Amino acid sequence: MSQGVLREFDPKNMLFRRLGPSGLRVPLFSLGGWLTLGGTVKGDPVKDIIQLAFEAGINMFDTAEAYAKGNSEVEMGRVIKELGLRRTDLVITTKLFWGLRNGPNDSGLSRKHIIEGTQESLERLGLEYVDVIFAHRPDATVPMEEVVRAFNFVIEKGWAFYWATSEWSAREIEEAHHVADKLGLIAPIAEQCQHNMFHRERPEKEYAPLYKKYGLGTTAFSTLASGLLTGKYNDGVPEGSRFAVHAMFKRTVDGLQKEDGQEKIRKVRELTKLAQDELQTTPTLLALAWVARNSNTSTVILGASSVEQLKENLKVLEVYPKLTDEIMEKIERILNNKPTPIETFGRPGLDRYGRL
Ligand SMILES: NC(=O)c1ccc[n+]([C@@H]2O[C@H](COP(=O)([O-])OP(=O)(O)OC[C@H]3O[C@@H](n4cnc5c(N)ncnc54)[C@H](OP(=O)(O)O)[C@@H]3O)[C@@H](O)[C@H]2O)c1
After folding, report:
1. Which pLDDT does position 222 carry in this prediction?
2. What is the DSSP-derived secondary structure letter of residue 26?
3. Structural domains in the chain?
4. What is the dihedral of CA 284, 249, 61, 209, to 10 degrees?
5. Which terminal residue of the chain has fewer beta carbons within 10 Å of its beta carbon, N or C?
6. What is the pTM of this model?
7. What residues does the NADP-dependent oxidoreductase domain cover (predicted)?
8. Sequence-distant (≥ 6) Cβ neighbours of residue 197 within 8 angstroms
9. Active site residue 207
10. How many Å apart are CA 180 and CA 178, to the nearest integer?
11. What whole-number distance in Å separates Cα of residue 59 and Cα of residue 49?
12. Which atom of ligand 1 is nearest to the CA of 222?
């Protein structure tokens, strides 16, 4: 990678956690590029957003082969170079599955696409390796042994240090662990999952045994439910917003008129009041801090379509320590959607070391 003057990384007041059972330290808040970087945000603003994040102690950036049809990786790679960021300071993650072309082997998790897809991603990023490579979805059409072996090959080649999953079921993650264990190979270290105040079952219940058994980490996404938890959709869909710009949210927008959607907006209003009255903050920061407060969360991937949004969201580090048990309880009462724990039929639960 050709670099000009290297910009020193200063973690400032960022907190770091291990990514699952690995030794890799990731910032509690990272930055992702879905729909934004290289998509609705192009050119200098991409640089401004990444620079702002980096200067605030965020050194982890998430992208995917399919984001903006490959342009997210291209833009991220360009900016890393232009800003003169030191590769060792950064944790770069990308994801494979959707592919960019329509051929039968251009997507999915075959050995062929995992290897070719990795090489193409690295080329777009202009990097020799990423830190973590994710399987962006499970692929029921490929034997798990092939998937595990292929990601291990990618690691052996030095193209990635770790591999991980995204939107896999607990059963699929378990299977990957069993296969890796049987073959003496490296298992996935984390799951990139949707986790927000309205989406809790999978990260809080379905994966619960995996945190205990495998120390699974999470890189949580859509923590603001794509913006819904900011309160910006309380009175309709503002022009230029994600729900207005991207057709894929049509069902979500229609849903806001229905009972379930109205209930969500009612909760956002109550959360706004709680945030203002008790913490002098915004529902946005409350929602981001709430996912970070979960000890199974390794990193919350922030999404921002402007420097201004990221500036606001970065204040989460001030709000995070204020989420006391009492505040968490008040949030829980508003949400009223805590997943019921896995049934133990009267048997007391064990901790991760098997102790009572
Ligand atoms: N693995 C996966 O399948 C998967 C799926 C989704 C995301 N991800 C990853 O997670 C990252 C974050 O996900 P996400 O973008 O869905 O997160 P999100 O935080 O739920 O949504 C971010 C969007 O909300 C709006 N927003 C953010 N801050 C705001 C603020 N302060 N005020 C008003 N609006 C604000 C912006 O959209 P507008 O300004 O356009 O309205 C922004 O792009 C992605 O970039 C990607 O790296 C992964």
Report:
1. 98
2. E
3. 16-227+288-317 (3.20.20.100)
4. 80
5. C
6. 0.97
7. 31-335
8. 225, 229, 267, 271, 287, 290, 331, 335, 337
9. no
10. 5
11. 12
12. 20
